[in-house]
Design goal:
23 strands; 17 helices; single chain; Beta-Lactamase; 5-stranded antiparallel beta sheet; alpha+beta; Phosphatase 2c, domain 1; 6-stranded antiparallel beta sheet
Length: about 675
């Protein structure tokens, strides 16, 4: 089924958009997953830090009040003179004021010298007398003597009542004699953390399981009270309920242990790890509370926590699809107006020219490639009409007198000498732009830039059943001399192709060298004028899917988007001092491979900050970056790269780059 350009363009556009859409969906899903993980990580850190502060805030408050009471001069003076009635009265009045601010409404004091223990709370009547006397021999009293011997600024003891399932924290702050630094007693209070822990557990975020552990992993608080290890403090030999019993995987258990150790070493850190908990993969963060020697672990089910609002995704998806649909319509309309419609008009004009109507009206020639093609076609039609008129005139002129012929020849000679622009049109006429466009369509591009109005570079294209010949030729010189050399080279090459066929590039170069030597080397002026030329010819065999290449100081480059290859041409030029020998090289014709022929004008072009030549390394890197794009995009990229590198420097030589690919 033969499809028109519109159908092919629509299919190509649809295919490209489909590929882009699939890639976008895959990348979007991966990006969304990464964002969800990152936001989940931040959410886990924030929740854990907040949980730590919820527990630590009441503890710090009670600790600060206990420290102020212990550091009070009233407290210090009374403990130094315990039996002084005035000091006793003043101290207990102050301790009662502190007791009202304590959360537990209790206050305790121990005088080291007498070992008297004082305690007041709301449950018993107030007393300024010692409740009892501590003894170092009593195990329950050892906490006081340890506090007196310790160098720590305070001591916090966690007491778990298994029977009542209550958690009590005792704050013990030593009272220091400022004269010698001795510890003369102890002051503090108690705090029932049960209410705070219940509030901490009940006010959990959606998808978050808050857990409190001790250093051994025993569970101190959990939303499921059945998992709380009430025996972890008082019963050292009991079967403890630990976090490790909830995690089956050994590696994940090791991750929990490592996180606990890391948090203990740096209480400001929040180590994170992934575990399977309650049948779900959850992100965990751990924070250490050194005052209580507890670890706060927050297990976050990232999906259940909804760190990303899923209600926002549907409008984004609908908007993206709508935008894509608008883009497809816009591109289709643009391609039709910019490319297809002018091309159809130009095709109709070509049919009329083929029918003999040389005065056909061509479409408006814009400043883009279509405009350039229209102008080139107009030039070709004008040249054909001119040549037709000229041939008819020459038939008539054969019957005229010799003087009329001489006048016309003189006029033609003057016209050639005075009109370089006409020479440019003639040179353009030999270039196979239309043939390449009709045969290769958008599977080729040509960058042809004479240094002057006309130049010494040209390119060739011939087709035959089963293959085609593509090549570039760089004649010595540029400007008018170079242009005349192109005419000679063009004629010699055409004769060689007509005689030998296009499928042996090495034989064509050899025959072309022989003919040029026969034409030019017999002229005595040959030694004073450079008549050598570089060339590269590639015969594309469609049946064997091979590219046969031979070059005279011109290489054939190829690139598949990753690797850049070079089929080097032979070292001798055509028409040089030595008679050359040319060889053919074969390369596979892969659908994903783009081929490039270039004269030395691009490679030798000066530019950059130091004015160095463009060079083969930069050229190869340019091919690697651009080979995967369409050839129209590559042409634009080549133009931009050359303009950027050349800057304000003048063009050194004629530049020709010819690229092609075959699906």
């Amino acid at each position: 089924m033969n499809l028109g350009l519109r159908a092919k363009s629509a299919l190509a556009l649809g295919g490209c958009i489909g590929v882009v859409l699939v890639v976008a969906v895959v990348i979007g899903a991966q990006t969304l997953g990464a964002i969800e993980d990152n936001m989940g990580s931040a959410f886990a850190r924030n929740v854990t830090q907040l949980s730590k502060q919820r527990i630590l805030a009441p503890v710090q408050r009670e600790l600060v009040l206990s420290q102020r009471l212990a550091d009070s001069e009233v407290t210090r003076q009374w403990m130094l003179d315990e039996n002084n009635p005035a000091k006793r009265k003043l101290f207990f009045a102050e301790s009662e004021r502190y007791r009202q601010f304590f959360e537990d409404k209790s206050v305790s004091m121990v005088v080291r010298k007498s070992k008297h223990y004082y305690f007041n709370d709301n449950k018993k009547p107030f007393s300024d007398q010692a409740r009892f006397t501590l003894s170092e021999k009593v195990p329950a009293d050892k906490w006081f003597f340890s506090t007196m011997r310790s160098k720590e600024a305070f001591n916090i003891n966690v007491e778990l009542d298994v029977a009542l399932k209550l958690t009590k924290v005792w704050f013990n702050v030593p009272v220091i004699d400022t004269r010698n630094g001795d510890r003369i007693g102890n002051a503090g209070t108690g705090l029932d953390l049960t209410t705070f822990l219940n509030r901490f557990i009940s006010k959990r975020e959606q998808g978050v399981t808050p857990i409190i552990l001790n250093r051994d992993g025993a569970i101190q608080a959990h939303p499921d009270r059945r998992l709380i290890d009430f025996a972890s403090i008082n019963d050292k030999g009991a079967q403890h309920s630990t976090i490790y019993r909830l995690i089956r995987n050994v590696n994940e258990q090791d991750a929990v242990r490592a996180a606990i150790l890391a948090a203990e070493e740096d209480s400001d850190s929040l180590p994170q790890f992934w575990v399977n908990l309650d049948g779900k993969r959850q992100l965990c963060a751990v924070a250490y509370i050194p005052e209580l020697k507890w670890f706060v672990l927050s297990a976050v089910d990232v999906r259940a926590a909804q760190v990303i609002d899923s209600s926002l995704l549907l409008p984004l998806l609908v908007g993206a699809i709508a935008l894509l649909a608008v883009l497809v319509v816009a591109i289709t309309i643009a391609v039709n107006r910019i490319l297809l419609a002018p091309l159809l008009k130009l095709t109709n004009s070509a049919r009329q020219v083929a029918g003999g109507n040389y005065a056909v009206e061509l479409p408006h020639a814009g400043g883009d490639e279509m405009g350039e093609l229209t102008r080139a076609f107009g030039s070709m039609a004008a040249q054909v009409r001119s040549h037709t008129d000229e041939l008819e005139g020459k038939v008539e002129e054969r019957t005229r007198e010799l003087t009329t012929v001489n006048q016309q020849m003189a006029s033609a000679s003057k016209q050639i000498g005075d009109s370089i622009q006409a020479a440019s049109l003639i040179q353009n006429a030999i270039l196979p732009n239309l043939e390449m466009l009709q045969t290769l369509s958008d599977q080729h591009f040509v960058m042809w830039r004479p240094r002057d109005v006309v130049g010494g570079d040209f390119y060739v294209f011939r087709t035959m059943p089963g293959g085609c010949l593509i090549g570039v030729v760089d004649c010595a010189g540029h400007g008018v001399p170079g242009a005349f050399m192109t005419m000679i080279a063009y004629a010699a090459l055409n004769v060689s192709i007509d005689n030998l066929g296009p499928n042996d590039p090495a034989a064509l170069l050899t025959d072309m060298d022989r003919r040029l030597r026969a034409m030019l080397h017999n002229d005595p002026a040959h030694s004073q004028v450079a008549t050598n030329m570089d060339a590269g010819l590639a015969y594309v065999d469609f049946e064997s899917r091979l590219v046969h290449f031979s070059g005279a100081k011109v290489s054939l480059y190829w690139c598949d988007g990753e690797e850049v290859g070079e089929a080097r041409g032979d070292r001798h030029a055509i028409g040089g001092k030595r008679i050359p020998s040319f060889t053919n090289k074969e390369m596979p014709l892969d659908a994903n491979t783009t081929f490039y022929l270039t004269t030395d004008g691009l490679l030798d072009q000066a530019g950059g900050p130091k004015g160095y030549s463009f060079g083969q390394t930069r050229f190869a890197e340019l091919l690697r970056r651009q080979a995967g794009r369409s050839l129209a995009e590559q042409r634009a990229a080549f133009d931009a790269e050359l303009a950027s590198y050349q800057g304000d420097l003048l063009q050194r030589d004629d530049i020709t780059v010819l690229s092609f690919r075959f699906a």
